Amino acid sequence: MSELVTGEAVALELRPAKLPSRALAVFIDLAVAFAVYISVTMAFAAATASLDDAAVAAVAVATFLLVLVGIPIAVETLSHGRSLGKLACGLRVVRDDGGPIRFRHALVRGAVGVVEILMTFGVVACIASLVSARGRRVGDVFAGTLVVRERVPTGQLAFVPPPPPWLVGRFAELDLSAVPEGLWLAVRQYLTRMEQLDPQVGWGMAERLAGEVAAHTGAPVPSDMPPAAFLAAVTHERQSREAQRAFGASASGGRAASTVAGDAPGPYGGYAEASRPVPPAAPPASPVPSAPATGPADNPPAGSGSSDGPATGFVPPA
Questions:
Q1: 276: how many CB neighbours lie within 10 A of its CB?
Q2: What is the mean pLDDT of the chain?
Q3: What is the pTM of this model?
Q4: Are 73 and 84 within 8 A, CB to CB?
């Protein structure tokens, strides 16, 4: 993941495209461009057969610049960073701040790409992409752009289990601004995979991550709370705050809704029952001593309908 900060100070987590996918996209683009170039060249050759050598050379240079440079720049500009090859591979060119590219970005990338891709057969672009931490070639560096992945496989989107319902909102006053993004990513990965870990290994990882989160927030982990439940609760609190900032009043009922939804049984990852407070046992009801029967005076009055025995002194109606 690559963290990009927009002009509105919003952190975006994007996946930079790796060299194999970028190379495949460039190969598709070049194959289509060369097919068009050969077709246009043959058409111009037939149409300019009567011209001299200088005119033929000028037409050849213009055709090269138009088909192999101009058309790719126009396509990236009009499609906001998605050429035919990038569309097939699920890639897109974006600015450093995560926004869509414009004509000047596509122009710089196309102009530099003539040197680092066409004239050097892609050697310079491959070396620059391998050296760069985000897989950027020289054209991306000069243009201030980045090629990212638009399509993420569904299997990589793991579900983060919600916290137990009695912990929702418990850390509403906790300051989470000092927790780095890398630590949040590690917590998220742990929560999505903790059911696959050995119990002792998972408990140790949860304690370590909870200690790091507590060190950045300045508040210790409650002693009566398992570390996994603490991580789930603070993660849910962070997501609630981000939703509140993004959607405003429309997300004001999110905390209450999640609390109600959490009452239903769900995939709490094994930490819900461990952290559920056990209600105190109700004291045993004291037996009520029954009064000993002392005689006929203790019998219920007539017409009381008691089922303890036959009623005495019953007088039938006249």
A1: 14
A2: 75
A3: 0.48
A4: no
